[in-house]
Amino acid sequence: MPNDKSDISIPKHATLFASCMVDQLAPAVGESTVEVLEHLGVTVQFLDDQTCCGQPAFNSGFRSEALPVATRFIELFERAEGPIVVPSGSCAAMVRNYYGDLFRGDSNMSQRAARVGERLFELTEFVTKFFGTSAISGELNESATYHKCCHLLREIGIDEQPIEMLSNLSGLDMTPLERADVCCGFGGAFSVKMPDISSAILGEKLDFIEATGANTVIAGDTGCVYQMQGGLRRRDSNVKVIHIAEALAKSIRNVDSTGVSN
User: Fold this and answer.
1) d(CA 151, CA 89)
2) Contacts with 33 (C-beta within 8 Å, 6 or more apart), sequence order
3) Cα(35)–Cα(255) distance, rounded to whole angstroms?
4) Which among 122, 142, 124, 149 is positioned nearest to 205, based on CA atoms?
5) What are the structural domains, with CATH classification, of the chain?
6) Between vectors from CA 138 to CA 165 and to CA 262, what angle results, nearest 5°?
7) Is pTM, for the whole model, over 0.85?
8) Strand, coil or helix: 237
9) Which of 2, 66, 188, 221 could cross-link with 132 by S-S, CB 3.0 to 4.6 Å?
10) Which are the contacts of 105, defined by CB distance < 8 A and separation ≥ 6?
11) 115 phi/psi in degrees, rounded to 5
């Protein structure tokens, strides 16, 4: 059920943190995120000189290389206006959950990181917290299933909220995905360092996806989207995989300002 928003001040402004994968590989996800936020009445700021949060280096054990990248992220985004919204659970988890570890020897930077982390939200988390899961009532004529990305579920605590959001879209036929909360095998560098294990995990995920009969898979992290889409293409499958920001934005575009489908 949507949360009670009566005691929460709804933000009028927010800053987009695009993430590296969105910036380099999936700009449509960033554009869709802006569409969703603007639909909710939020003015979006974008900092042109933003870069990585340091997650790839940190996850690979290169803390000395991650430190200057994370420091720059804090210096840039602590001056940003309003909440910081990122369409990525993994990037949100890095800033909120692991900057404290990264800066554990520097109390000043640790405190600054904590303040930035308090203002940073994954997209569906932001929408749920400030607007509720029923805030978007668009139209999307698809048969779909939803994959629960690891970082969203285990690090950010986003579980059924995106599914509740999608359930409000007219025309969208959602089919539950067996073992939806099990990894798709991406895991960032994991899929490169351990390709055989990654492929085995992915294979099971794709079997469950194809068993749903859905024509679309919706997920909340670009890495998962690319991992599953690549595997499906290698199987010559017609099932497509899209980011939830794209699904929500498309549903909004399918409905005009009077609420009548185009």
Assistant:
1) 5
2) 16, 85, 87, 123, 245, 249
3) 13
4) 149
5) 13-129 (no CATH), 133-253 (3.40.50.11810)
6) 165
7) yes
8) coil
9) 2
10) none
11) -65, -40
**3-state SS, residue 64:** helix
Output the CA–CA distances (angstroms, integers) from residue 245 to 43, 136, 240, in the order listed: 17, 11, 15
- Structural tokens at position 202: 């992915």
Helix (H, G, I), strand (E, B) or coil at 233: helix
Determine the 3-state secondary structure of 77 from DSSP. helix
Per the structure block, which two tokens stand in for 174?
């959602």
In degrees and rounded to multiples of 5, residue 63 shows phi and psi of -65, -40
Name 72's Cβ contacts closer than 8 Å, sequence gap at least 6. Answer: 51
Q: What are the structure tokens assigned to 44, written together?
A: 């979006």
Q: What is the pLDDT of residues 62-75, one digit of tens each?
A: 999 999 999 999 99
What is the C-alpha separation between 85 and 44, in angstroms, rounded? Answer: 9
Q: How does pLDDT run across 169-223, given as a tens digit for each residue?
A: 999 999 999 999 999 999 878 888 899 999 999 999 999 999 999 999 999 999 9
